[in-house]
Write a structure and sequence with these properties.
This protein has 449 residues and is an alpha/beta fold. It folds into three domains: 234 residues, 3-Layer(bba) Sandwich (FAD/NAD(P)-binding domain), CATH 3.50.50; 118 residues, FAD/NAD(P)-binding domain, CATH 3.50.50; 70 residues, no CATH class. The chain is 34% helix and 21% strand. Strands 1, 2, 3, 4, 5, 6, 15 and 16 form an eight-stranded mixed sheet that branches. Helix 1 crosses helix 13. The model has no long low-confidence stretch (mean pLDDT 95). It binds flavin-adenine dinucleotide. The site of flavin-adenine dinucleotide has 33 residues, from helix 1 and helix 13. The site of flavin-adenine dinucleotide (FAD) has 33 residues, from helix 1 and helix 13.
Length: 449
């Protein structure tokens, strides 16, 4: 075939944290594998670890954030930092990028292609990939590390989506790109907190608003906190409601015993995937509808420096959280008017910019990435039943539209939220990358034999 190259052992699509972690893990556990990493953006950063604002920090301690599978002390050793430090996210991105560079430096069998993959099809016992330059590649195994798609906005009024004052990608919008004046963030989670803190840091004049259906604000992170013993907590994990009831009781008991509720939240991390896998689809849906915002506010905590900036802005009367739902929007001479429903009342405000901070869009049916569209069209992947990501086994093996498992098409990271739910933080992703590298090493032994 014209322009086609030799067959790679593995093609990794996406060079964010997950793609970089796979390449680094392969350098360690599958040293001889021929690997090609496709990354239109600078590898190692993705949505989370770009330049951004200096006030954007990791929300977990450095000791838990090594990108090198099997070497948990790598980050602290490399950066010589305090194990409990919450690093600026850009610095973490620098660390991932540098770790990737060192892992693949001088290794002829590893290639980085600075381009997107736009199509993928099965061919023989592997795959054929087409990139945005219309070049073709063959690979035995493909790893989908497509990560965090920009937030969904199909629920927002068309007038807002068409306005120049609307910013749909909160992770790739610099604060100085926003028009001067008041800013509205849709959502109230960590991304909204980041945007409000950056607004304050950049000394934007005006007021920052957040608008969300729920009233929960992310809790403050305390990096020195350690998980308590899960088994000693008596957590009733049979259903989402019993889980949350028993978690709350355990948190109260822990506080009464002189501890911190976060120690209980941390203890749930390790068994969380098993608990999710044990629930029925109806129970998972119930969790998403009724408990996910509360769980998110306890589990994904805000770094102290970010929260301090938000609190200072609020004390100055320049940060206003609103509970409500957008119902209409219209461009006006001095800004965009947002009408929202709050309880039984309808109100409005005029702002200079609106940033969508509602979180990554996991619903593949709404994903505009040409590769995702092609994979769905060909029936090679399908969306999970909750619309959180790709349908797959707990090991990340994709399931096609006929329900067949493909052991050669693997996904990791945020794409697996529907299957594992807790699948987005650095430690989980690095562990998944290790499992993929070990599988590739095993597969390679079979091909070579
Ligand atoms: C703002 C933010 C802050 C976070 N902070 C923390 C934290 O402090 N601690 C923590 O543990 N976790 C954190 N997380 C969670 C976690 O670390 C991220 O979700 C992580 O970035 C996921 O990595 P990823 O590579 O899967 O996805 P992404 O970072 O989204 O990277 C995916 C990459 O794939 C590329 N891509 C997409 N389609 C194609 C294609 N067709 N061809 C080629 N490339 C493609 C994209 O360009 C992108 O570069 C954060 C997440 C976000 C969004």
């Amino acid at each position: 075939m014209k322009g086609e190259r030799e067959v790679d052992d593995v093609a990794v699509i996406g060079g964010g944290l997950a793609g970089a972690a796979v390449a680094i893990a392969c350098a360690r556990f599958a040293r001889h594998a021929r690997l090609r990493l496709f990354s239109p953006e600078e590898p190692g950063r993705g949505a989370a670890y770009r330049e951004g604002s200096p006030i954007w920090f990791m929300n977990g301690p450095a000791r838990a954030m090594s990108v090198v599978a099997g070497d948990p002390g790598h980050l602290v050793r490399t950066l010589r930092c305090d194990p409990n430090a919450l690093l600026p996210r850009k610095r973490f991105g620098d660390y991932v990028r540098e770790s990737l560079r060192i892992a693949i430096d001088g290794r002829m069998q590893v290639r980085v292609e600075r381009t997107a993959v736009v199509d993928l099809d099965r061919a023989g016992d592997g795959f054929i990939l087409t990139d945005a330059r219309n070049r073709r590649y063959r690979a035995h195994t493909v790893v989908l590390a497509l990560g965090n798609a920009r937030p969904a906005d199909n629920f927002l009024p068309r007038e807002l989506l068409e306005s120049a004052r609307y910013f749909g990608d909160p992770w790739r919008t610099e604060t100085n790109e926003l028009p001067t004046g008041d800013m509205l963030c849709i959502g109230r989670g960590l991304t909204a907190m980041d945007r409000v803190a950056a607004y304050s840091y950049a000394e934007h004049r005006g007021t920052a608003f957040t608008l969300a259906r729920h009233a929960y604000l992310p809790a403050r992170e305390v990096p020195a906190i350690r998980a308590c013993n899960f088994r000693a907590l008596n957590i009733d994990e049979r259903s989402p409601l019993s889980l949350m009831r028993s978690v709350r009781a355990a948190m109260r008991d822990n506080i009464a015993a002189g501890g911190d509720w976060r120690e209980v939240a941390e203890a749930l991390r390790q068994p969380s995937q098993r608990i999710w896998l044990g629930w029925t689809s109806a129970q998972r849906r119930q969790f998403l509808e009724r408990l996910a915002p509360l769980w998110g506010s306890l589990r994904y905590r805000v770094p102290a420096a970010t929260e301090d900036a938000v609190i200072a802005l609020r004390r100055a009367g320049r940060y206003v959280p609103i509970q409500g739902e957008i119902v209409a929007a219209s461009d006006e001479a001095d800004g965009i008017r947002i009408a929202y429903r709050s309880g039984s009342e309808q109100r409005s405000l005029i702002v200079a910019s609106v940033v969508n901070c509602t979180g990554p869009n996991g619903d593949l049916a709404l994903n505009p990435d040409p590769l995702v569209r092609a994979l769905l069209r060909r029936g090679i992947i399908r969306r999970d039943s909750l619309g959180l990501g790709i349908d797959a086994t707990p090991y990340g093996e994709a399931i096609d539209d006929e329900g067949l498992i493909d052991e050669r098409l693997l996904a990791l990271g945020p794409m697996l939220r529907g299957v594992l739910y807790e699948s987005t933080a650095v430690p989980e992703i690095v562990e998944q990358a290790r499992a993929i590298a070990e599988r590739i090493a095993r597969n390679r032994e079979e091909w070579v034999a």
